Protein: Post-GPI attachment to proteins factor 3
Organism: Brassica napus
Amino acid sequence: VWLNGEYHGNGHGSHDEKSPWSLSGPCSVTFSVLSLAMPFHGWLSFFITLYYKDVDITKRLDYSSAIAVLGFSLIVSILRTFDVRVEAARVMVSAPVLALVTTHVLYINFYKLYYDWNMIVCVAMGVAQLFLWARWADVSRHPSNWKLWVVVIALGLAMLLEIYDFPPYGGYLDAHSIWHLATVPLTILWWRFIRDDAEFRTSSLLRKSKTKAK
């Protein structure tokens, strides 16, 4: 956080010391609320909004919800990319990820609330699923592939805002607040891709069932 021209640590206020409030806080809160209006990661954004009150419990909720969302989305990306349809195989894929998420949540809640380690785990899981979705988009012939490509590339660039901090521009916009702002249009595009994907898969299944009926 930047205050009175001096740097006081990461904008998350994630270290043991309580971070001073700055004008960049309200911007992050505002953009977080905008993101909350979108279904994608809305509840995570809600926790992040609370987090700026710098209460210990909201930090834990922020970290825990982030890793839970990333864990679920990582499982989905693996199952979709490798077209895992056998139920036993799905369990074998999901179990290690769920174990990792559970262990991490227990660690940060009951052992040490460690921001840097949490960021490493979250970034690793985020980068992994971005690569998986990029591979799927590259080999598939989905009619809305371009939407997925935009989301993957834009999220990869936006992720840098979570890693590298900079002083608030004009005293208002810091890296974390811009991250929340970036998630608003990307959320819309992501859900449009999901809608197109549902329609595409449904039409494909209907064509197959009609072909078998003949």
